[in-house]
Design a protein that fits this description.
By secondary structure, this protein is α+β, with helices and mostly antiparallel strands. Helix content is 16%, strand content 42%. The protein is globular, with a radius of gyration of 25 Å.
């Protein structure tokens, strides 16, 4: 009788340990848990025509309806929160050439994800940026960038302001 109780208790202990080691989920990454890596995210902007084939799905927004729209694709190497497309108006330029903009959010995504970029139709007018982006980075800081076309090679560049 003692032997049967011992075997039964041993079996129950082995089952309990197996459940805890494999079923508790401590070794699995929970998709609901946020990334604890505080390395700054890399957000990039490129001509959409060159990049859209690399994505199965993406979000879209039309910033204006002018005739000469361009399609710009915004991507991130990790999820960023509070992603905003901004309408910019130049307010001032200091003696060092630093530009001050007033900004108005015209489109918001709760999260810009690496697997689902945002394609924005926008018009580039002149050399002063009229659109920008902002987002909350992985460390909780807000980053703001003007969207411009490079005068060297025609690529899209993001200039932090």
């Amino acid at each position: 009788m003692k032997r049967k109780i011992f075997v039964l208790m041993l079996t129950a202990a082995v089952i309990a340990m197996s459940f805890c080691l494999s079923g508790c989920g401590k070794n699995e990454k929970d998709p609901e848990i946020t990334d604890t890596d505080k390395t700054p995210a890399v957000v990039d902007a490129k001509w959409a025509e060159d990049e859209l084939e690399n994505y199965n799905e993406y979000d879209e927004f039309t910033a204006d309806t002018y005739e000469y729209q361009s399609k710009v694709l915004f991507t991130a190497d990790r999820s960023v929160k509070n992603f905003n497309v901004l309408a910019l108006t130049m307010e001032d330029v200091d003696d060092d050439g630093n530009v001050t903009f007033s900004e108005k959010s015209i489109h918001t995504l709760a999260t810009l994800k690496p697997e689902r970029p945002l394609m924005v139709r926008m018009t580039f007018e002149g050399t002063i940026p009229n659109y920008g982006i902002s987002y909350t980075d992985t460390d909780g800081s807000t980053k703001r960038f003007a969207v411009q076309i490079s005068g060297k090679d025609g690529s899209i560049i993001l200039s932090e302001f």
